[in-house]
Design a protein that fits this description.
Blueprint: E1 2-11, H1 14-25, E2 32-37, E3 41-42, H2 52-61, E4 67-74, E5 80-81, E6 84-91, H3 99-116, E7 130-138, E8 142-151, H4 157-173, E9 177-184, H5 194-205, H6 221-226, H7 252-269
Antiparallel strand pairs: 1-8, 1-9, 2-6, 3-5, 4-6, 7-8
Length: about 270
């Protein structure tokens, strides 16, 4: 799949900035906090995890206007399903706190996800484009949201650009900024490729799985393929329920098998 990472900045109003600053230095101030727990996973397979940030955003949707967000924090990187999130709240006399902007952006993201399910390619798991909100942070004058999308090779470029334009417009309508920080196009290698058939033969010789599969994540092959380089993805270790988890690991046995595969590929195609 292709990959797009985005950043959204949701600004505090001048009144909120002043209120938050005063609150931090006043004596005898009190707040309430809430922690949300999830399950980490790679952002290309969000169905294998459980987003703590999504739980928190659903909670914010239910907050009354009389509650202000003093601090909000969640996730560790845009590329991981977040396993934790935290919010600190305070009763406030302010009008129109930042909560409404956060909810408007969240609703736009949910609408985009509903569009994603209209496009499927069952050679991929998940079979539709996906979206992950991996990071949320509080700064002096704004809240930062960072996330990523995974795009199928069968989706036209104009559709992808339409989706990004929708997110950008939704942000601008709520006085928020939107930035596309990275983009790698999706690609597919033909099943009739000599390179693919040779690699499959070598894997079969090594008694390893030799049937080609589609990969829901993105790597350097997306860049090489743009220049006409024929690409395959191969690597040692388990993928599902391993990548971007606390116990991520690769066994020595798998590393040795991969080393043998690479040597045979070089012998077959390079010598």
């Amino acid at each position: 799949k292709g990959f797009a990472s985005v950043e959204i900045q949701i600004p505090f109003s001048e009144a909120e900035i002043e209120y938050r600053n005063e609150h931090n230095f006043r004596e005898s101030t009190t707040t309430q906090s809430k922690i949300f727990q999830g399950v980490s996973a790679h952002s290309s397979t969000p169905h294998l995890g459980e987003s703590a940030i999504t739980k928190m955003l659903q909670y914010i949707e239910l907050l009354p206007d009389s509650v202000a967000i003093m601090e909000i924090d969640g996730g560790s990187t845009y590329n991981t399903v977040p396993s934790h999130a935290f919010i600190e709240l305070d009763m406030t006399p302010l009008l129109n706190p930042v909560n409404a902007k956060i909810t408007a952006i969240f609703n736009a993201i949910k609408k985009l996800e509903n569009e994603f399910i209209k496009y499927t390619d069952y050679s991929f798991i998940p079979s539709s484009p996906t979206l992950n909100i991996g990071l949320i942070r509080t700064f002096q004058d704004h809240i930062l949201i960072s996330g990523s999308c995974r795009i199928l090779p069968t989706i036209p470029q104009e559709i992808f650009e339409k989706w990004m334009a929708f997110l950008k417009t939704s942000c601008q309508d709520n006085d928020c900024s939107f930035r596309l920080t990275d983009y790698k196009k999706p690609f597919q290698t033909s099943e009739n490729s000599v390179f693919l058939k040779g690699a499959s033969d070598i894997l079969a010789e090594l008694n390893l799985k030799s049937d080609p599969i589609s990969l829901p994540s993105t790597n350097e092959t997306s860049l090489f393929s743009r220049t006409g380089v024929e690409c395959l993805c191969f690597g040692p270790g388990l993928r599902d329920n391993n990548i971007h988890t606390p116990n991520e690991h690769v066994s020595i046995e798998d590393l040795e098998k991969a080393s043998l595969f690479y040597r045979k590929i070089i012998e077959r195609f390079c010598l």
